[in-house]
Each structure stands twice: as structure tokens, then as C-alpha cells.
Amino acid sequence: MRAFAELLDRLSLTASRNAKLVLLRDHFANAPDPDRGWALAALTGDLTFDAAKPAFIRKAVEARMDPVLFGWSYDYVGDLAETVALVWPARPGANREPELSEVVDALRGASRAEVQRLIEGWLDALDATGRWALLKLMTGGLRIGVSARLAKTAVAAMGQVEVAEVEEVWHALSPPYDDLFAWLEGRSERPTADAPGRFRPVMLAQAIDEAIDFGKLDPDDYAAEWKWDGIRVQAVSEGGVRRLYTRTGDDISRTFPDVIAALDFEGALDGELLVLREGGMASFADLQQRLNRKSVNDKMLADFPAGVRAYDLLSDGGEDLRALPFAQRRARLEAFVGALNTSRIDLSPVQTFATWEELAELRRQPPPGDPTLAEGLMLKRWDSVYEAGRPKGPWFKWKRDPFLIDAVLMYAQRGHGKRSSFYSDYTFGVWTEAVDGSRTLTPVGKAYFGFTDEELKEIDKYVRDHTVDRYGPVRAVRADVRHGLVFEVAFEGLQRSTRHKSGVAMRFPRISRIRWDKPSGEADELATLERMLEQMEGR
Amino acid sequence: MIRPESLLCPKPEGLYCAPGDFFVDPVSPVARAVITHGHADHARAGHGVVIATPETLAIMAERYGADFAGSVQPLAYGESVSRDGVQVTLVPAGHVLGSAQAVVAWKGLTMVVSGDYKRRRDPTCPPFEPVPCDVFISEATFGSPVFRHPDDGHEIAKLLRSVEQFPDRAHMVGAYALGKAQRIIRLLREAGWERTIYVHGALERLNHLYERHGIALGPLAPATSTAKQDFAGQIIIAPPGALADRWSRRFPDPVSAFASGWMQVRARARQRGVELPLVISDHADWDELTATIDELRPGELWITHGREEALMRWAQLHDIKARALALVGYEDETED
């Protein structure tokens, strides 16, 4: 447990990707089996427990110390797991520090009552870092800035293989991955990758740099498609095993039984998961109703029917197509989807164009229908093989320009972690006019990025200097027709919302510019947003 | 029994002893001052007479020049000086070289001004000596149950492991120039690090002073070499302010470490961009504060500065009469 705890501790404060890789690689090289395998599972999100809820942890600590002192400590530290780890009044006479594998075995096997007794014993035996790691592990969500992919990359580095090779076999493996480590250390053959229904590492696109790339690219070399606004999925059906994966290989089959039921084929499709109604796609807001749910009910399935818009074919009747050029895969895909008898899988059409100017016009003025909901365009070289990762050149994404409005800063909230001394989360509003002609601000969104560290300092100072009220961690900032700070806010789309007073919700809002120069009274009106919304809906 | 306030009472300049006519650690110039230790917020220049340990006087002379006070009165550990019936004795506080508690006795009443102190071992100064007293006047820099400093050997091992793991990077340790820097160097030597340790110019004079007082620091060199790669795999000690300064750009991809009790809280480390927090403090942590008070069981506890709220609560729960003086002008440890 100690080595794992110290790893998490270092990772949580290490920003550089390379340094994280060194820390992870060294851990995987030095920690014994099966501890390192459980560590890998914890980092890739393949190990979760529900044995210890935060409420239990809090109760346990308050049984041992003055709740007032605990409350002040929690206020000061701001994170429950960290506070408990620091203040935990260990009973003397404990105990041998548990190994990670002991903790995992116990948490998987024991009843809830037993687990709670065990946890107290572990907390007594561990030091503050160990307690912190244990609590993070048990309450889920390590949140230490390590993605599943980074952890796999480090494992690959340890074995001196490409990460795609690890991803390729990943879904045939299960924690604590003894066979993976045995292969990477040259003690055994590569684990079999051809488990039916497995995930194939995904090929990703680079963002195009309009100023540079178009000058060098020949439009004849590229196919163009709409960039659909859903989530990237891989739909696999092989030998009776049906799976739906996210682009990072998370298995989301259980959340989408309707899609799984439609995978009546033998192969692996790459496409976009969308809510599809009568052949047309619904907005991302509709898809969100279906995401991240552990269980789905019939009403959900009826109201938000999901489907896949296919744009690549990776395997067809047991044949691996990934080494074929895109043009050939595309032809196979069209035949493959054409032969399916379901409305839940359709084809992402290829857009014809002769020049980049012509394509730019298409991007600017999408035709009515689904393209108005697209996020932009995708460009794929006709001769590109399907290569895991994000190679430079074969695939590009060309996003639509964001929408922009000018809004006035209304509230600011303290940030977290590195930003806990800064007011870094901003609620902004736009003007509405009452019948008597008076103008008031209505909040329309919240953003916490898009600015530089230097700008953050300036905004933080502005907030502190112009506070008119405080509510816990939130400050109300002076904002009226004559005084206020204007942000140019960029966002990707608008949705109607009953939860917001303004009636609209922004997608992916961020601060694109700080308009120190602009008088607050000249910021945008809510009516502007309503017009934008009508345009988006008027397809 | 006389009231303790008639012996010592808080004033804007600091704690004042009326019957003896002197201040303890005054923050502005006064006629007579007893100085507990050499940190700048406790030891200021410009007093008339300064009473302190010879080591503290040497530190003040090094920092402010020989004429830092009208006159000085060295008082070795255990020695006393009396004036108008008030006896002052200096006793080790275990904080930094020369640091002392001021034991003030008058008409059968004993009050101990702890100054800043810690209870754990420090290879650069003698350990804190508990003195039974009627009133214990404590600091509370880390007066919250969240501050419980780990063993310093563990923290040094963490640093050395990181040096091993990242041989191409320099390890830059932020440490307060007086006390912390020399303690870190000594701890590194004890852990077997025999290579040259590179130091920021701001530490040099105090390093020499420590060596003159018999604390061997081993091979040191100024961190001013020109070849960036020379610092790969090396340890550099600098004042905390230099970590994020342009000064640090001379080192290859430095790992920013910071030796301070504040590093116990992750958000603090993140805020400062510290990659390798080393929880090493010259102040008593929560367990040391409460154990000291428990051991002394003073009739009254006064708290000079720091996070007094939680310690007040603790005292209340343990039936110890406590009072917060809320003295201003004493900075938290190495916040600069």
C-alpha cells in the first residue's frame, strides 16, 4: 500500500506528462504482483468499490475526535479524504500496514459491516499519505490527473512496446493483469488479443491549422464528412459477443441495450453514438439523458432512442480491415451498412467537394437537417490505413467557429486545487429589459477556463475589489448598467433549459476574451441568445 | 497570587514586562528587548539593549551588521539575568540555532514565553526543555489537527528517491535561509548524501555562521555554474521565493521541492506549483503543541500567534484556561 500511496501522492502534484510516465513506469517495474496489477486497475478505472461512502468515513472520524475541530479542519483543507487522512487519531498498538492486494481482496469479499471495521484498522496502521490513498481508492475517483490511456502508455513503456499493442489486448485481460505483466517482462507470450468482442484502439484526428495546412493539402486526397455531435463509439459483434465501447475502450454496453440489440452483424464498426429519431439525429442534450446511467428504463429507451452513425469498418466477418486504405474500407462499410436491417445504424455520408473554398462554404452554411447540428467537418485521406492514436496528417477535424456573445460577470467562486486561492469560476449574465424599460442582468452560464494565469490574477483582483456580497465561497460582483466586467464568451451551442432562469443553456462555454474596454451596458441582450437558438432550431 | 497580566501583557510592540521594563520579540524598536531567536519577524534591528543567546546575537549581527542594537547582553542557555526583582532565564526551544524560551519569574510567578519551538530532534540545535510554569505562552503556527508533521527522515528519503528517479533533472529545495536550510543540509548528510550541495547566495553567510558554531555542513558550492547540465541530478537549496523566480531558469527542468510544514496540505503545494512537498517544519505540529501543554499543565495558556482558534478549543475541552493574544507582526513560517 505504501508504494501505491506514494505513487498517487507524487502523481497528484506532477504536471508534466513525461514525469508522470516515469513515476508510473518505475512503479510498474518495481512493485510486486499482484499489487501493481491492482494499481493499474485503479488508475484505469477498472477497480471501483462502493464499500465506503463518504458519510461513513465522516462518522468514523467524528467518533474519535471533537466534531467541531474536525469541522474546522475540513473547512481548512476542503477535501474530505485529505482531511480525514490528516486528522485521523490513530489508536496506538496498530498494526501492520496492509498491502494493496490485501485491501482489494478484503473490499471485494467482505460484507459492508466487516469492511467498515477493516477500514478503521487500516487507517490506524497507515500514515497520512497511505490513509489519503486508501480513502481515494475506496470512495472512487482518484482524480490525480492520470487517464487510463496514460497508465497504459506507462505499462507499455515498461515493456518497451507501443501503447496500441497494450490497448489491443486490453479487453481480453482482467485485473490484476498477471498475464499482461508476464508478457511485458518477456516471461510469456503476448496474451491472446482475438477475444471475440474486444476493443480496437481508436484512430483520432488532429485539429487542422487553417492558416498552414490547407496550403499543403490536395483536396483530391481527402474525403470529407460531417463531424457529428455525439460520442465516438466502437460497436462490435463477434461470435455472439456484442459490445459498445467509448473511444478510450470503456465498455458502455449495459447503458445502451437498444444499440446492442441492433448489432445484428459480424464485425466492428467505428461511428458516432447519437439519439436517432425517424432517421434524424437529436441534439447532444438528448444524448446526455442517456449517458452515464447505470440502469435504463423503458421510458428512457422510448423517449431517447439511441443509434450509431457509422463512418468506418474495422472488421468484417472476421477479416481485419484496418490495414486497408480508407477508400476500400469505405466501400466495404457502405455495403456492410446497406445490408443491415435496422434503423439504429446508418451511414455518415461523404461530402463531395472540388476545392477547399467549396468545403469552407459548406462548413459555413450547412444544409438543413442533421448537418446544422454537426460540430464541423472531418477530413480523411483516401489512402489512410486505420492507425491507432493520433497520427499527424491522415485525419483532420475542422471544427465550426464557436458562437460568441458579450456577457457581464455577476458572480465568482473560488476554484479548486491549484486555484483554491483564486476566484476562478465565473457566472455571467446578459441584459433583459422590463416593461418599464429598466434593464437587469440574467445569468446565462458559467465558465472557468479560457484565460491565462496572468489574466486569472487580474480577474481575481477585480473580483476582490468589486465584491458587493458574499455567500460562502461565492462573491457577488458589482454589475450594473454603468459598472461591470465584460467577458466575450465562446460556446459551441445552445439548448433550451427549464433549469436555468434564462431558459437557455450553453454548451462548452469558455472565456474567449476579457473586454476590459467594453462598458457593461453594451454587453449582449438575452434576445440575442434567443435569436441564435431559433436559428439553430429552425432547421 | 498576583495576576499574570501585571508581569507580562500584550502591547502593539509585542509582549511587555512592566516590572522589568522590557519587551519580548518586539516588532518595532524599543529600549530593552529579550529576543527568543534570530528569525527576522522576532529579531529586529534598532533596539536599545538586546538580551539573547550568543548564537542569536551572532545571527542578528550577521544579518543587520554589528551595530544592530545600542548594546547587547549575551545570555547562554540556563543563565539568568535579574532586574528590579524580575528574573529572565533563557532555555532551549529547539527551533533554530540559538533559539530560546524566555522564562520570566517574579514574586513566585513563573511565565514561559516559548517563542517558536518544536519538540522533535534537530541536528542543528539543542532540544526544547520543558519548564514548569504558571503561564505558558505558546505559538500556534500549526495549531490545527490537520498539521501533523511526518518523520523528517522519511521526507529526506522521498527527496533522495526522486533524485534517483529523475537523474536528468535538478532538485531545487526551497528552505528558509535561517535554520531550515542548514537542517536540511545536515539531514541530507545524515542520510548519506555526500556530494556537493549547491546553495543560493542568500544562504551563504548563515551557512558559514552555522559552521563556525560547529555544525558541519559538508561540501557546499554556490549555484552559479554556467553549464545547465552540470546541475542534472544535483540538489540545490534556495530561499522559497527563488523557486518560482527567474533565478530557477538556470537549472535543467527543475523539480520544485519545498520544505515547510504548510506542505502537509496538498492545495498549498499545488498553489505554489510545488512538485515535491517536503513536510519538514521548525515549528511544533498539532501533536507537539498539545503534548507540550499537556505535559506542562500550566495554570493558563496564552497563545501568541498562528491558528489559535483550534488550540483554544482543545484547551477548553481539556479544562485549561486559555487566552488568545493575537499578536501581530509574526509571520507564518516561510510564507514568502
Biggest sheet layout of chain B: 7 strands, mixed
Helicity level of chain A = 25-40%
- Strand pairing plus helix content of chain B: what structural class? alpha/beta
**Protein structure class of chain A:** alpha+beta
* CATH class term of the largest domain in chain B: Alpha Beta
CATH class of the domain at 206-399 in chain A: Alpha Beta
Classify the fold: give the CATH topology of the largest domain in chain B: Metallo-beta-lactamase, Chain A
CATH superfamily of the domain at 206-399 in chain A: DNA ligase/mRNA capping enzyme
For the largest beta-sheet of chain A, the strand count, sense and barrel status come to: 7 strands, mixed
| Beta-strand percent range of chain B | 25-35%
In CATH terms, what is the architecture of the domain at 206-399 in chain A? 2-Layer Sandwich
Oligomer: heterodimer
Radius of gyration of chain B: 20 Å
* Tally of DSSP β-strands of chain A: 21
Q: DSSP helix count of chain B?
A: 7
The total of beta strands of chain B comes to 19
CATH topology of the domain at 206-399 in chain A, by name, is D-amino Acid Aminotransferase, Chain A, domain 1
Q: Quick one: which chains have the greatest interface?
A: A-B, 33 and 29 residues
Mean pLDDT across all amino acids of chain B:
93
What spatial form of chain B do the alpha-carbon principal axes imply? Answer: globular
The CATH superfamily label of the largest domain in chain B reads Ribonuclease Z/Hydroxyacylglutathione hydrolase-like
